[in-house]
Amino acid sequence: MPELPEAETIVRGLRPVVTGARVQRTRVQHDDVLESTPARFARDLKGHAITDVSRRGKNVVLVLDGPAYLVVNLGMTGGLYPLAAGQRSPRVTHPAVRLYFEAGGQLVYNDARRFGRLRFLDPRAWGDWSRSLGPEPLSPEFTPEVLASGLGASRTPVRNWLLDQRRLAGVGNIYASEALHRAGIDPRRPASSIAPRDCAGLHRSLVDVLGEAIRSRGTTIRDYRDATGDGGGFGPRLRVYGREGEPCLTCGTAIRRVVFGNRSAFLCPSCQPPAESSGGIEA
DNA sequence: AGTGTATCCTGCAGGC
DNA sequence: TGCCTGCAGGATACAC
Fold it and tell me: Nearest nucleotide to A94 by CA–C1' distance?
């Protein structure tokens, strides 16, 4: 469900509300979202104060004193909802984990499908984990050259390349389709077949679409909600994702859905031609 | 190295 | 109304 823009929106909503709160106790209602046991999780978290709320790729990170880190991967349907003492929220439909704070109130991790994961990391494990992910797409280190060199080393379909968090951290199925459409690249093309100038165009498209989506507070297809319970506003701005059969906003051609790598990709067959008819030089 | 497949889960939309 | 199938913003493990 949540990709980088949705995680970022959650972080921005959560930060002013939970920073400074100290964990008094935890309640685990579904232990399958934990990597450790509920007892271990309780021991790890108890007594820690939240010093900041951050993000790495599509993961929400609660930075704790110590320091230590609670990394929340929201899976498809995960959400984080802070509740004041006595407050109830209609968004809390499938509570999996609750962090109760000393000053009252709680932070609920809600997840209908429970594909999400919460893990407590010490600084060493945090470093290892963070280094296992690719660069942040909106950071200065993610340059057109970095993208081009990464793509050039792989023959996997470019859409799959973009979804691989070890290569680039934060892009999911929605924004992969959107960026590839903006860049005029067929999602099925081998990554290494993309010419340098198209790599530069894809870089720009990624940065643009992620930035615009953040400004719209993310995309709500069905489940996504920010920390306040509000949906994102980027849905109407999607140009291809979920628009199978509808006209391309650029040229009017019917948008197609193609399935590979077990995921749907959406494209305009006219704006995103197969490699051989695009005139580019094949690698 | 790559790709297809299955798995973890629940919910919803659409067809009959 | 109910039953069935297919689909879903993710990630991983497996066999080929």
Answer: B10
Whether the model pTM is above 0.90: yes
Question: Which of A98, A103, A120, A78 shows the shortest CA–CA distance to A17?
Answer: A103
Mean pLDDT, 10 residues at a time, over chain A (283 residues)? 94 98 98 96 98 98 98 98 97 98 98 97 97 97 97 96 98 98 97 97 98 97 93 96 96 95 95 70 41
Half-sphere exposure of A50 (CA within 13 A, CB side): 28
Catalytic residues of A: 2-3, 58, 263
Å from the A240 CA to the C2 C1': 34
Residues 6+ away with beta carbon under 8 Å from A243: A255, A266
Beta-carbon contacts of residue A128 (< 8 Å; ≥ 6 apart): none
Nucleotide closest to A155 measured between CA and C1': B2
DSSP letter assigned to residue A261: T
Closest Cα to residue A228, out of A237, A240, A220? A220
Q: Is the CB of A219 under 7 A from strand C?
A: yes
Other Cβ atoms within 10 Å of A84 Cβ, number = 12
d(CA A152, CA A195): 9
∠A137-A143-A148 over CA atoms, to 5°?
Answer: 100
- Whether the upstream peptide bond of residue A273 has omega within 30° of 0, thus cis, is no
